[in-house]
Specification:
Blueprint lengths: L3 E6 L4 E2 L5 E2 L13 H14 L5 E6 L21 H4 L14
Antiparallel strand pairs: 1-4, 2-3
């Protein structure tokens, strides 16, 4: 049974206690909770700010210092902001009728 749940996004990054995405190298700074439903609530709050976010509550064990044992994210790209997710602007035109 997992000791804690951490929040991980689609890029493999982890949510910190400051609600920023990190690579997990500083395990002390990671957001963690013993309750799955609390982790899901945090995911809901974060996804309401960024609709392109795909995050999961990841169960993990803790070490002897009660820090989550996570794999450090090797994803070098920064997480895109919601504005960067948008595609090219599209203009809507009125349909023309040929009479």
């Amino acid at each position: 049974m997992p000791n804690v749940f951490v929040v991980q996004n689609q890029h493999g990054q982890y949510l910190s206690k400051q609600f920023e995405w990190t690579d997990g190298s500083d395990r002390r700074a990671l957001y963690r909770t013993a309750h799955y439903d609390e982790a899901v609530n945090v995911i809901f709050e974060q996804s309401s700010k960024d609709i392109m976010l795909r995050a999961v509550a990841t169960p993990c064990e803790t070490d002897e210092q009660n820090q989550p044992q996570v794999e450090i994210c090797r994803h070098n790209d920064a997480v895109a902001t919601p504005a960067e997710h948008e595609g090219p602007e599209q203009t809507l035109t009125e349909p023309t009728t040929d009479e």
